[in-house]
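Recall from the previous lesson that a structure prediction takes nothing but the amino acid sequence as input. Here we apply that procedure to Folate-biopterin transporter 2 from Gossypium stocksii. The sequence below is the only information supplied.
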Amino acid sequence: MVEEGNIEASNKAVEEDNGPKGLYYCFWGPIYWFRMLAMETHWSFVFAVVSTYGISQGLGGALARVSTEYYMKDVQKVQPSESQVYTGITSIPWIVKPIWGLLTDVIPIRGYRRRPYFILSGLLGLVSMLVISLHGKLHLVFALMALTAGSAGVAIADVTVDACVAQNSNKNPSIAADMQSLCSLMSAIGALIGFSISGVFVHLIGPKGVFGLLTIPAALVFSVGIVLLEPHDANLAYKEVSEKFLDAGKAMWRTLKCPEVWRPCLYMYLSFALSLNINEGLFYWYTDSKEGPLFSQETIGYIFSFGAVGALLGAILYQNILKDHPFRDLLFWIQLFYGLAGMLDLILVLRINLKFGIPDSVFVVIGEAVTQMIGRLKWMPLLVLSAKLCPSGIEGTFFALLMSIDNFGLLSSSWGGGLLLHTLNVTRTKFGKLWLAILIRNIFRLSPLGVLFLIPRGDPNSSILPTEMLGSEDETVAEESNNIELVSLVNSVDGR
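The prediction returns the following tokens.
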């Protein structure tokens, strides 16, 4: 089996050598690559990845973030501490990702496992975005329900396309890495384009108009459920659903009780929860404070787009330089620099940058790019560690559970930041103690260093789980499983 894989890899290398080279490769290379993926899998699978990762999560997620910021501030007119809490509420569907994963795995609908869930996620997005964009004066409670439903639609599509990628990776292991690259590339490009145009669209048509535009990504996800190539099985055993749920639950609980698993899980939760999120307070100060820079909608979008570039640079830096470093050593330095990077916000709020002749726009762009780059560097080793904690047989579901722990940490961070802003009386018009909130946040960012002992000393190339949890599969299968679970390596970075 290994020899056959080597022969296939050699043939693939020969084909690549015969492909276009030189300057023409810059244009034709991506086209040949997309064509190869479409031929090896199916064009509908490539369409699903582009629609879900690139347009729905990448471009749509960027537009949704900026429009939600302005919708809460200008339409609902809530305080920054309240907006911080409401943002956390809309992220709850991402915390229950294991539920969506189990549904797509064990509860087929009319003989299909994936297509109905794409249709469901598309309908959720369409209805929720239409409600919030067309209603004149939507009550805050119903607006939150609509935003949460839209978030659920994106989360369900994310889990479903992950399952499709995993299936195709099993069928075509030689292009598993190419499928991961496709997912990461689409997400990064989509986010960059989305943030670049978000401010312009918010300025031209307002945040509610942008929500109306978000029906387009939802419609594309819906169409994926119509055209996706998936075998139909009318004899699926629905009676086994409860047994599968029970078996998966027992396996996950047995794994979580293992010290080699719960200790890193505890660290991952604490590292996110203790890094208090006060972004809403900073956003209000950016746009409303008379002592602040008074950025326009267009400028806010450009700032976030530079943040996307910083995140992409962080991914490249990790992949090419840092990926083989021991987990504990790497996370120590990343967490330290993450706390120090927060001082850039303090310098901005105290207006120290102006004393050195650095314009606000330049300083904020640098700060956003640096923060997002370090944040990506922090996220990626934790994702790799999470993949290595998944036992054989329940890799997909357990990986979704670990991602939910991370997302629950982000939710705690958002609510903790909202409580901090409320305690310090940082409001729409009062920013006198925003500097203190930033200082406290920076101190909390350093606190995970005290529990770094929960992280194993091993490097990404060593095994973490006990031998009995690794299963009886050979090394090739185990390696394929680890690769499959890294599908979401880049596109999950924005608290997803």
